[in-house]
Amino acid sequence: MGEAERWVATALDGYGAGWVRRWVATVGPVVVERVDGADRAWVDEAVRRVEADANRSADTHLHVLPVPADWGIDVYLKDESVHPTGSLKHRLARSLFLHALVSGWIGPHTTVVEASSGSTAVSEAYFARLIGVPFVAVLPRSTSPEKIALIERYGGRCHAVEHGAEMYARAEELAAECGGHYLDQFTYAERATDWRGNNNIAESVVAQLTLERHPVPEWIVVGAGTGGTSATIGRFLRYRRMSTRLAVVDPENSAFLPGWASGTPDYATGMPGRIEGIGRPRMEASFVPGVVDLMLAVPDAASIAAVRDLHARTGHFAGGSTGTNLWGVYTLAARMLAEGRRGSIVTLICDGGERYRHSYYDDDWVAAQGLDLTPYRERIEEFFRSGVLEN
Questions:
Q1: CATH code, 58-85+194-386
Q2: Phi, psi of 105 (to 5 degrees)
Q3: Which of 12, 93, 107, 279 has its CA 20 to 30 A from that of 390?
Q4: Please, are residues 193 and 232 in contact by the beta-carbon 8 Å criterion?
C-alpha cells in the first residue's frame, strides 16, 4: 500500500457503517466514493411521498370579504387553514423537508428537530410521519395545548422551554445529542421555497385573481414569523414586475418592525408575544427587509377583536395572526378610500380558530392578559359603516 492509499484508509477509519467506501489509486490523485444505493432509494421515496401530498391537495380558496360595494375596493382572504395540517405553515414545512432531503441532511434514521411556536411544528410532525422519521419540537411552555395535542397526534414529541428565546439553542443541542438534523425554519424559510413560482403562495394568489375586476392587487398584507412568506411574496412581485406593494404587520413586542425601520439586522426585544405564529423577539435570518414596502404595528387587542369580528361577520374561524392581518387590511383600505383610490387587497387566513379556543376566543384569557377589546370592536364597526378607521 502506497502513502496515498494509507492516508485515505486512515481518514476513512471510523466512518459509520452504511456507507460503501472505496478508494482507488490512479496515476495521480486518489478517488474516494461514498455510495449507498439503499439510502438514495429511501430519499427518492421520501421526496415522492412529500410531492404526492402536494399533488393530492387542491389549492387553497380565495374568499371575498364583504365590504360596501360603493367603495370600489375588493378584499380577498387566502384561506390557508384548509391545508391538511390546518395552517399556512404546511407550505413551509413541505419546502423545508424537501430542501433538507435533497441536500442530504435527512436520511432514513435521522431524528428531525425544530424550534417553533407551534404551527410549523404541527406541519413538520405530519411530514416526518409521512416519510417515517422521528420528530421533536422545541416549544415555548406557553404554546397552546391544542397545538401540542396536534403535534403529538402526528407522532411528534414536544420539548418545552420557559422562554421562546431559549428554543433555538436547545433545538440545536437536541439535534447534536441524537445525531439528528435541526431544520431551523428561522434560517432556511426564505431559501427553501422557490420564489419564482412552482405554485408558491404568491403565484397562486396572482392566478386566482386573473378574472377579478382588480386582478393586480394594490397591497398584499402578511405577518412575519420566520419571514419566509413575506420573502417569497416580495421576491415574486419583483420578479413578475408587478406594481403590487407588500405590507407586513407586526404584533406587540416583536423585533421585526423596529429592526426594519432602523435598519438594524440584529435588533432584539427579548420579549415574548401573545399572537402566536407571527412576531419574534429578535430579527430572524429568513426575514428579508428589502422586499417589504410598508410595516404596521398592530396592538394585540386589535388583532383579537378583528379575528372575532371576522368569525361573527363571515363565519370564518381563524387564529390571532389572521386578526393582525385584517387590522392591516382595514388600515390600508381606509387610506385608499381617503385618497379616492380603488383596487384590491389580499391577505391570509393563516390557521383555524379551533387551536385558540382557550386563548383568543376565551374571555377569561383575554381579561387575564389585561386586554380591552371594546375600543377596537367599535373602530371596526365604524370602518365597515364609513370606511374610516379612526385612531
A1: 3.40.50.1100
A2: -95, -20
A3: 279
A4: yes
Closest C-alpha to 318, from 67, 87, 61, 85: 87
Of 125, 107, 128, 108, nearest to 116 (Cα)?
Answer: 125
Task: Specify whether the CB–CB gap between 86 and 318 falls below 8 A.
Answer: no
Beta bridge partners of 40: none
Q: Which burial class, exposed, middle or buried, applies to 38 when counting CB atoms under 10 A from its CB (0-12, 13-18, 19+)?
A: exposed
Give CA–CA dist 120/269, Å, rounded.
22
High-pLDDT (> 90) share of the chain, %: 81
CA distance 203 to 194: 10
User: What are the start and end residues of each CATH 3.40.50.1100 domain in the chain?
Assistant: 58-85+194-386, 90-189
Distance of CA 261 to the CA centre of its chain: 22
Question: Sheet harboring 112-115: ordered strands across?
Answer: 157-161, 135-140, 112-115, 181-182
Number of residues that this document lists for the chain? 391
| CATH class held by domain 90-189 | alpha beta
Q: Please give the share of the chain, as a percent, with pLDDT higher than 70.
A: 90
CA angle 330, 89, 153 (to 5 degrees): 125
Q: Which three cell numbers stand for residue 377?
A: 370592536
Phi, then psi, of 38 in degrees rounded to 5: -70, -45
Q: Is-contact 93 126, C-beta < 8 A?
A: yes
CA 220, chain centre distance (Å): 16
| Residue with the three cell numbers 377569561 | 364
Cell of 99: 430542501
Q: How far apart are CA 108 and CA 31, in angstroms?
A: 27
Residue 22: predicted pLDDT: 46
Distances from the Cα of 187 to the Cα of 116, 126, 159, 228, angstroms:
12, 21, 20, 9
pTM, two decimal places: 0.87
DSSP 191: H
Answer whether 174's CB lies under 8 Å from 113's CB.
yes
Tell me the pLDDT tens digit for each residue of 244-297: 999 999 999 999 999 999 999 999 999 989 999 999 999 999 999 999 999 999
Cα separation, 377 vs 362, whole angstroms: 16
Residue type, 266: D
Q: What is the pLDDT of residues 336-363, one digit of tens each?
A: 999 999 999 999 999 999 999 999 999 9
Average pLDDT, stretch 312-339? Answer: 98
